[in-house]
């Protein structure tokens, strides 16, 4: 069930990252400068990569647990940056709040589930 949950969760960054890479700033429903659009596409490509990495980890969690740990840490770090933005700049639109829930809720929960079932004593490799 854990592998299925990880694969389902990976759909979110794969779709959002793919759409952001293809559509740029228009994916978020707004206009942006070429610089902002370029940066959004770059970050969307990274998001797509994180989703694909999650799928790769889910295929063999006992052996790829170290990579899964790093992946979860990177996602949580991004969520922490998003939370900082919320505190400093105000409440973002609801899709960003859902992303925050994935980053600081779902991802750590999946990591804790992995740690409790498969990751006992696993070292980062």
Summarize the structure.
With 125 residues, the chain is mainly α.
Structural description of this entry:
- The protein has 125 residues and is mainly α.
- It has one domain (2-117).
- Helix content is 81%, strand content 0%.
- It has four helices and no strands.
- It has helices at 2-23, 34-59, 61-89, 94-117.
- Helix 1 runs antiparallel to helix 2, helix 1 packs antiparallel against helix 4 and helix 2 (34-59) runs antiparallel to helix 3 (61-89).
- The radius of gyration is 15 Å and the shape is globular.
- The chain starts with a helix and ends in an 8-residue tail after the last helix.
- The mean pLDDT is 92.
Note the main attributes of this structure.
mainly alpha; 125 residues
Give helix and strand order, one letter per element, not per position.
HHHH
**What is the percentage of strand-forming residues?**
under 5%
Q: Which regions are unreliable across 5 or more consecutive residues at pLDDT < 50?
A: none
Q: What structural category characterises the helix and strand content?
A: mainly alpha
Using only C-alpha atoms, the radius of gyration works out to 15 Å
Chain oligomer state: single chain
Distance between the termini: 24 Å
Q: If helices are DSSP runs of H or I spanning 4 or more residues, what is the number of helices?
A: 4
Annotation, overall tally of beta strands: 0
What is the share of helical residues? over 70%
